[in-house]
Design a protein that fits this description.
Structural class: mainly alpha
Radius of gyration: 22 Å
Number of strands: 0
Order of helices and strands: HHH
Number of helices: 3
Strand content: under 5%
Shape: rod-shaped
Helix content: over 70%
Length: about 70
């Protein structure tokens, strides 16, 4: 993205729509990563809450094992 921005910056005849399109793609990439982090945080919060009464942390281990029972 940096290379593309520099290329656009050097091009005096660049259409502003190209700069805008690049900025929109970058913004969407950030939003997508934020949503992925939110999902991960929700899962971890649920699993941590499920482990409050347990000493072995079994729900977290089961989730990491793909739902299999961990012994």
């Amino acid at each position: 993205q940096i290379d593309e921005l520099l290329r656009l910056w050097r091009d005096n005849k660049r259409p502003s729509r190209k700069v805008r399109a690049l900025a929109e793609r970058h913004r969407q990439s950030i939003v997508d990563r934020m949503n992925a982090h939110r999902s991960t945080t929700k899962v971890l919060t649920r699993l941590i809450e499920a482990c409050k009464e347990m000493t072995a942390g079994l729900p977290i281990l089961e989730e990491m094992a793909g739902g299999e029972t961990v012994n």
